[in-house]
Amino acid sequence: EAQVTQNPRYLITVTGKKLTVTCSQNMNHEYMSWYRQDPGLGLRQIYYSMNVEVTDKGDVPEGYKVSRKEKRNFPLILESPSPNQTSLYFCASKETGAYGGYTFGSGTRLTVV
Amino acid sequence: KNQVEQSPQSLIILEGKNCTLQCNYTVSPFSNLRWYKQDTGRGPVSLTIMTFSENTKSNGRYTATLDADTKQSSLHITASQLSDSASYICVVSRNNYGQNFVFGPGTRLSVLP
After folding, report:
1. Contact across the interface for A106 and B42, Cβ inside 8 Å
2. Partner residue facing A48 (CB), from B41, B95, B99
3. Is B97 in Cβ contact with A98 (below 8 Å)?
4. Would you give the DSSP letter of residue A85?
């Protein structure tokens, strides 16, 4: 089954403790992206990657890092999480082309206390 | 400023009734417009995608319209079902490579028996 897999689904952590949210897709998509979703706001892009070893900032990149060492994986790294990073995070991958289908993962609900 | 606005913010209807959700955008340039359905706690799932030249597109009981002149889109749901309860998100793509998306805040639809 074609899918984007994120782990973990839920995470509670303390301020300053480094964490990584993993994302993997099995569709051989070149494009992958991370979003955060907060109440009353639309999905906001954190980082995206056009291909292996190619990453770029989205609209809200502060406090996050990503890497794209292989096509299928696109982890999101929070080096020193803060409470304002409490949010629902989605990883997505996209078919090549302007009208390519976008597949989202099931989300990771992160709480930073 | 590139923005996507949706109305109403939330909507409650009875099972079997029709409803229409609105999307207004000020995004430029414009490549395509997508409607997504997002169940609570899950990733968004694509319903329709329309290019500049398309006025209407259907997917089962969902029909989307686009007026590129007035920069408005609507999503019409016919004969609603309980499973239609979800958030519906309007997304505008800014370029032909498809990596620059502007998300609306969504409309929360509740279908009651």
Report:
1. yes
2. B99
3. yes
4. G
Residues 6+ apart with CB under 8 A from A72: A24, A25, A26, A28
How would residue A95 be classed by pLDDT, with cut points 50, 70 and 90?
A: confident
Q: Does A71 touch chain B (CB under 8 A)?
A: no
Listed residue (B59, B86, B40, B23) closest to A101, CA to CA: B59
Q: Please report residues of A whose CB lies closer than 8 A to that of B89.
A: 42-43
Query: Beta strand A19-25 with A4-7: parallel, antiparallel or unpaired?
Result: antiparallel
Find out whether B86 and B25 touch, Cβ atoms under 8 Å: no
A21-59 pLDDT per residue, tens: 999 999 999 999 999 999 888 899 999 999 999 999 988
Q: Which of A87, A89, A99 to mutate to test the interface with B (most CBs of B within 10 A)?
A: A99
Structure tokens at B43: 């990733």
Closest chain A residue by Cα to residue B101:
A45
Which residue spans within chain A are E strands per DSSP?
Answer: 4-7, 10-13, 19-25, 31-37, 44-51, 54-57, 65-66, 76-78, 87-94, 102-104, 108-112
Is any Cβ of chain B less than 8 angstroms from the Cβ of A27? no
The tokens 């890092």 sit on which residue? Answer: A65
Q: DSSP 3-state assignment of A83?
A: helix
pLDDT digits (tens, 9 = 90+) for A36-45: 999 888 899 9
Distances (CA, A) of A32 to A6, A73, A94: 12, 9, 6
Contact B111, B85 (CB under 8 A): yes
